[in-house]
Amino acid sequence: MTSARAVSLVAKREFVTKVRTRSFLIGTAVIIAVLAGYVVLQSVLFDDQQRSVVGFSGQATQLAEPLREKAKSFGVELDTRDVTDSNAEQLVRDGALDALVTGAPPELRMIVKGSGDEVLVTALNDVLRQQVLVAQLAEAGITPQQVAENLANVRVGVTALEPVDPQRGQRLAIGLVVAALLYYSLLVYGTMVAQGVVEEKSSRVVEILLATVRPWQLLLGKVIGLGAVGLLQLLVISTVGLALSSAFDVVDVGSVGGTALATGVLWYLLGFFLYATVFAAAASLVSRQEELQSVLTPISMTIIVAFVAGINLMIGSPSGTAVTVLSLLPPFAPILMPGRMAMGVATTWQVVLSIVLALAAIAAITWLGGKVYANAVLRTGARVTLREALRT
To answer: What CATH class is the domain 51-143?
Structure first.
């Protein structure tokens, strides 16, 4: 049997066995359900944040239309209602109104239940100033149209040193989601590879398998098979997530969603081959599931630190020196670089350099991990030290 045939058989076995399990199907369904709930919640919260209900009583009703137009310029949809003085404040207490505007210019009052919406206060102050200004101009015998004509061409000149990306917020959201999905996939399926190695070692199934295939063939087949399972789940979750985000207008994924998905797939493959081999080699050093966590903790912590640090750095300064340097290093690149690429802040040379370094690291770790796996996987009983595994 050729090496390619042996690797493909092991990979197919791992893929089919894992995909058919209830844990995979239920886990994928639960993640999609949680993602759908999150998207719907964000859509509802976004709509609530962009809509306010304001009541007007007495002479303040004349400000309803100007305030509605002013609020629209701030991106807030205003629902105005005329209310009577007798029950107006109770409506605010009951939550039926976000605010109540009473009185007459220049002495208006806005009654709210709590602290009030700052955007709404700003819009109302602008409308009030405009009303007072119009009144004073009328007293001086000057029409607002004359003032508007005189001020039409008076404006400050703005020079942008860097072009403004209108999709920056959406790119940040997609970048963070991509980083989170890669973090989940690398951690979960890397651990799954390790658990499979220990299970085969403790049950001595590995001895039967190695009678037919070589250690590196078994290791490579296991990594490819479980990596394909993780890739399948990643594609399903990402596709559903992008579809839901587009359907509920949470994120406009038309221009950046496909690129982000392709970037995520590329870095998932690089990251999985980088980490899965390390997970498998580390797992081959122990013979029981109880001992597994002790050898996997350093690897898991690296992924966790990369994710936590990356999220904070990308939110604060995605183009900063710290996040740029970390995104080039192989242990952090699979999580940080796709997020920076989705945000459009990673330059071409940075992407190319990070890929080259990741491929070099994969080659070195595959050779080293394969040696550790081959020398330790058949040794049962006491835990094998890394020095012993490399010495043989």
So the answer is: alpha beta
